[in-house]
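Dear colleague,

Following up on Tuesday's group meeting, I ran the structure prediction for the two-component complex that the binding team flagged. I've pasted the input sequences exactly as they went in, so you can double-check that nothing got truncated or mislabelled along the way. The structure tokens for the whole assembly follow below. Feel free to forward this to whoever is handling the docking comparison.

Inputs:
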Amino acid sequence: MIINYSELAVKELINEVLQAYASQNPGTCKCERCKNDIMALALNNLPPKYVVTDIGRVYTKAVFDQVGGKAQVIAALTSAIQRVRQHPRH
Amino acid sequence: MIINYSELAVKELINEVLQAYASQNPGTCKCERCKNDIMALALNNLPPKYVVTDIGRVYTKAVFDQVGGKAQVIAALTSAIQRVRQHPRH
């Protein structure tokens, strides 16, 4: 099977990054629709990192190594949170 | 849920493009490992097109519209087939 490590990284970090942002910015929506919009937007602004893998052989640490570290994923998520907050579709 | 339309487009076209290439280039491998390598490589060279969607609401035609037409997907697949053929990992 093929997987996009960027997608795994975004799914791994969305809750933590959104929670941190919301704690500084009251009123930030955390509904499923907004979360999906944030993840889709972030992923369209991150380089894809598809790899061939066997099911079950995915390690979180390897994910962040593959995508060039947590920092750029957090930056893409934060930027997406700001955009979705300004233009929510829920 | 979120899906990458580029991934759907690549999965939709891999067999057709690989078959056409192999018919012109005898000896082209069509094993699962090579097919996965080809798809991963093609996807890392196509822009990601993540969208939020409900399960079952994906239409093939919409997929190709979203990714800018079949042509660039076929080009990315063909380029990936050539690279995997030169450096097979099966």
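The longest strand of chain B covers residues 2-4.

Cheers,
M.
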